[in-house]
Amino acid sequence: MNMKYVIVLGDGMADLPLEELGGMTPLEYAKTPCMDYLAAAGEIGTAHTIPDGMAPGSDTANLSVLGYDPKQYYSGRSPLEALSIGVDMRPTDVSLRCNLVTLTEEEENFEDKKILDHSSGEISTEEAAVLLEAVKQELETDCYKFYVGTSYRHLLIWQQGEVLKLSQPHDVLGQTIGQYLPQDEMLQNMMRKSYEILVNHPINQKRKEQGKNPANSCWFWGAGTRPSLSSFQEKTGLQGAMVSAVDLLKGIAVGASMKNICVEGANGGLHTNYRGKAQAAVDVLTKEQYDFVYVHVEAPDEMGHQGSVEKKVQAIQFLDEQVIAPIKEGLEQAGEEFRMLVMPDHPTPICIRTHTGDDVPYLLYDSSAPQKNMWKYNEREAAKSSHHISKGCEMIDYLIQK
């Protein structure tokens, strides 16, 4: 019987102890009986997923967890998203992430505004597509092309562009934007004009009436050039599949020649289709005979960016109950032996509402060799473990015992 391999990645799940939770982290506080069972029957430890000197992001971290050393393979975040959207970048193209964000509206000058929400209240893709179309009508040229992605996450392709250092919107939440605007005059002008186009758009008027955050400006960041990843199957010997709602992970899968599984209702938010993702993972391993599946869940990271303790705890509990438990049960019922790795890609601490490059806790469970331990799965207990993976890109070989 062939061993099956699973990674369940709770994006941004790791955190710091919080007063509101009695000095516990959201992962410690959350009710996670399945993760705790797997941890006690397996191994826990820590992993360093972000290479020293690199920015802590879901791009570098997920590449690392999949076995691709970001120092070698990383060429920018948005080019990976371009792969997912189906944009065939030329070598001279530069792609940029185009977030639809919420800026404050009372200030007269654009540079005096503050960024309230990097996700415009997790706006739906349907609404965002209409708003981006309005921006395209006014701003698109032969040199600058816009493409619709998912929810608030979209794409700008800049022909003959330049890879500029640009600020991530989730790093400057609540701050005045002037000093964080692009130095490039054309990009800055497009951001200013996007605000003028979107601020009074009917969709945003309606969102405000409903008490939702308007998507009233574009924000460009994450510039990069066309990536070049080696095939995951050639690299590991495993036929792999990706289950994710976000274009970044789908793009990594395209670049790595993995199967992309689209799950209806999977939206990258708190109320995504968790069970649908779990079922898709079980099906691809048992019915389609794939060897490996990577199940990425964005919700803990989004709740960390929102600064919501309650919702981050909820996201972790949903992950345990509606993703990890059903995958475990589904593989057991199918009579499959499996090794499952559960981990975050990076911490997204509530207190700062953005990513850090600190070590993350992992649990590794082997159904063919269950152990009996007393520990639970959380940051505190994992830090006490003697197991430490100093290079995150070696985690995949550790999982498959290469």
Q: Please state the overall shape, judged from the principal axes of the Cα atoms.
A: globular
Instruction: Please identify the oligomeric state.
Output: single chain
- Poorly predicted runs of 5 or more residues: none
Rg calc? 21 Å
Percentage of residues in helical conformation: 25-40%
The main β sheet shows up as: 8 strands, mixed
Mean pLDDT: 96
Terminal residue distance: 18 Å
Estimated structural class: alpha/beta
DSSP strand tally: 13
Secondary-structure element pattern, one letter each: EHHEHHHEEHEEHHEHEHEHEHHEEHEH
Number of helices: 15
The spatial strand order of the largest sheet comes to 9-8-10-1-11-12-2-13
Query: What share of the residues does DSSP label as strand, in percent?
Result: 15-25%
In short:
The protein has 402 residues and is α/β, with parallel strands linked by helices. Helices cover 35% and strands 18% of the residues. The protein has 15 helices and 13 strands.
Write up what this structure looks like.
This protein is α/β, with parallel strands linked by helices. The protein has helices at 26-29, 33-40, 58-65, 70-73, 77-85, 125-139, 185-198, 202-209, 232-236, 247-255, 274-286, 299-306, 309-333, 379-384, 395-400; strands at residues 4-10, 43-47, 94-103, 115-117, 144-150, 153-158, 217-224, 240-243, 259-261, 292-297, 338-343, 360-366, 388-389. The model has no long low-confidence stretch (mean pLDDT 96). It contains 15 helices and 13 strands. Helix 11 (274-286) runs parallel beside helix 13 and helix 12 (299-306) packs antiparallel against helix 13. 35% of the residues lie in helices and 18% in strands.
